[in-house]
Amino acid sequence: MTKSALPDDTVTDMPVKDALALPQSLLVLGGTSEIGLATARRLIARGARTVWLAGRPSPALEQAAESLRTLGADTRTVDFDALDPASHETALGKVFAEDAVDLVLLAFGVLGDQAHDERAPLRAVHVAQTNYTGAVSAGLVAASALQAQGHGALVVLSATAAERARRVDFIYGSSKAGLDTFAQGLGDALYGTGVRVMVVRPGFVRTKATADRPREPFATTPAAVATAIELGLRRGAETVWVPGVLRLVTAALRHAPRALFRRLPF
């Protein structure tokens, strides 16, 4: 298969013949997510006209919506709480009742604080419930709605931290590992239905949430992740790494002997 050239910071597994059209409408679960908003801006520039931002009501959510309206998109907000799975069907149902949604971007999540969370189990549970339990609920509800309308894509923001537990962030990494496995399985379950699932695995992303953390190798930006998402959608990819070199790095680390892995400086 001949593959089109990709930017150096992006690697996708991409069946080109199954490429998807870019969405005209999208729902961002995690409406204040910097990656989610960067993706929305990029897709608006490519022709998206309707954007739903789902999140807990706040001035930040309203400001995010207004910033997209200035770009020409019909942008609306919907109340959504990742930690309240019982409300997910109602919240997302309001969106799909309005019109078809071409793309659902599952972009919410929390990093937690490993050093503190290890000593405070309830804080660790908060990370797990947000990143995994809430995402499983929202992902299944979104997938069901997309399947009912007969088309669409679900893009799930995982992380390279999901590939193997590290001492510095194994609570966060384990929650993303669960999400990653879930998303892969969901993609297989939806194969042939007209609904696609794309898993995105960024490395360390420079955002406000990570501003006070030491910068890691192969760091990336929300804009770079948004670019990778667009390219992945164009090519019908199932998995995207950002930057692309992390596909090789994580493959090597996944098979490193545990005694060696423990001595690595991270």
TrEMBL record:
InterPro entries assigned: NAD(P)-bd_dom_sf, Sc_DH/Rdtase_CS, SDR_fam
Key word Oxidoreductase present: yes
Keyword Oxidoreductase (UniProt): yes
Keywords: Oxidoreductase
Similarity section: Belongs to the short-chain dehydrogenases/reductases (SDR) family.
Descriptive protein name: Decaprenylphospho-beta-D-erythro-pentofuranosid-2 -ulose 2-reductase
Lineage, uppermost ranks: Bacteria, Bacillati, Actinomycetota, Actinomycetes, Kitasatosporales
